[in-house]
Amino acid sequence: MKQLHLLLSRKPSPAQLVMVLSSYCLVLLIIRILVSHTLFYGFLAWNLVLAFVPLLLTMILQRKERLRHNRYGLLLLSFVWLLFLPNAPYIITDFFHLEKGALYMPEWFDVLLLTSFAWTGVLVGLLAMTAMQQLWAQRFSASKGRIFIVFAALLSGFGIYLGRFLRFNSWDILQHPFDLTTAITTAAFHWRTFGFSLGYGALLLLLYCSFRIPFQSTVQ
Question: Which InterPro entries match (predicted)?
Fold first, then answer.
């Protein structure tokens, strides 16, 4: 209740907002598990944890000045950041499970559950993108920061496709690089791949453009 009071009485910090949203998501998930006696949507908790990785990486860069101002250090962490960014909007595609989940709980509850997790994941991703654009603008230039974010959003659409349909994870680039490379080269030339990747990448970019309006004075 104290956190809710802070949210309503004054402008909350991003950390407070994310904490409250994450807590709400977990409460809904626990309720579903207790009522349905199944762990059908238990994977949502892990997906949300993965969604936080890009935000944590930007926090590391913000706190480590030497790393932030080192061109190669920033580029290396930016590459790792790109690998994990698709995990944030990926939760949107968990609505694909809605029909199967209805076997255990009312559909309205599962819509509430999935929407809560999806919005929290997207919000965490948007915060990470805002921070990364600032870091790139400070180290390189404002225009390069914008170009990087557009590239990251569109690439995330393809990353979501690889995760949803080909079942690859962010760390498969280290564990199964050959399989991942083969899958990418095979899938990249299919219309379904192009349509899905462009659609979800464009959505993430549009959400980011909408989200960053309050930050126009700090993010150029």
Answer: DUF1361 (IPR009793)
Q: Which of 75, 17, 70, 21 is nearest to 48 (CA)?
A: 21
∠ Cα 216 218 220 (to 5°): 65
Q: Exposure pattern of 126-162 as b/e (b: 16+ CB <10 Å)?
A: bbbbbbbbbbbbebeeeeebeebbeebbbbbbbbbbb
The pair of structure tokens assigned to 123 is: 């919000």
The three-state DSSP-derived secondary structure of 16-73 is HHHHHHHHHHHHHHHHHHHHHCCCCCCHHHHHHHHHCHHHHHHHHHHHCHHHHHCHHH
pLDDT of 220 above 60 = no
Instruction: Give the global pTM.
Output: 0.88
- Most distant CA atoms of the chain, gap in Å: 53
CA–CA dist 201, 7 (Å, integer): 31
Ranges of each domain in the chain: 13-215
pLDDT for 174-211, tens place per residue? Answer: 778 888 788 777 777 788 899 999 999 999 999 999 99
Which residues fall within 8 angstroms of residue 77, CB to CB, at 6 or more apart? 57, 60, 61, 67
Which residues, 6+ apart, have CB-to-CB distance to 55 below 8 Å? 124, 125, 127, 128, 131
